[in-house]
Amino acid sequence: MSDTAVAPPAAGHADARGERRDDATAIYGSLLVTGMVAVQWRADSVPDAIALTVVVSVIVFWLAHVWSEIVSRRVRGRMTQGEAFAIARAETPMLSAAVVPALVLALGPLIATTDQAIAAALFVCIGELFVWGLIVGRAAHSSPLLTLRVAIVDSLLGLVIVGLKVLVIH
Questions:
Q1: DSSP 170
Q2: Angle, CA of 108, 114 and 116, to the nearest 5°
Q3: Which residues lie across from 72 on neighbouring strands?
Q4: pTM, whole model, 2 decimals?
C-alpha cells in the first residue's frame, strides 16, 4: 500500500472562459435522445410526435438533474439563487443534445419518408455521440488515437441502444 495520495479525476475541463465544464450531461443527453428516438420508431411512427416527445422528455430529465443537484447541495449547506442558476446552466448541454435530432424529425418528412427521417435523426444522434467523444477524448488524452477511441466507444454505445431496440421490438 502506497502513502501517495491519488487526486480524484477532474469532472470536466476548462471551457473558453476558463470555467470548469462537464460534458457528461451532453453525452447523457445524446444517449437519452438516441434511446427515445430508437424505441419510438415503429411502422406507424409520426416524426413530429417523436420530436415533441424527445424535447419534452429531455426538458423533464434536465429539470430532474438540476433539482437533484440543488437538493444535494442544499443538504450540505445554504445556497444562493445564483448558484442554483449556475447549476441549471451547467446542465444545459443535456438540452442541446435534443435540438438537431428534433429538427431532423420535424423537418425530415418534408423531404424524405418517415422511416428515412427517423433513420436520419438516429444518424445525427450517433454523430453527436462521436463528436462529444472527440471533445471529451481530446480533453482527457493527448494522443489522437486515444481521442478517436473515446469517440468510437461513445458512438458504439449509441449503436448498442439502437441494436437493443431492434432485438427487443422486432
A1: -
A2: 70
A3: none
A4: 0.80
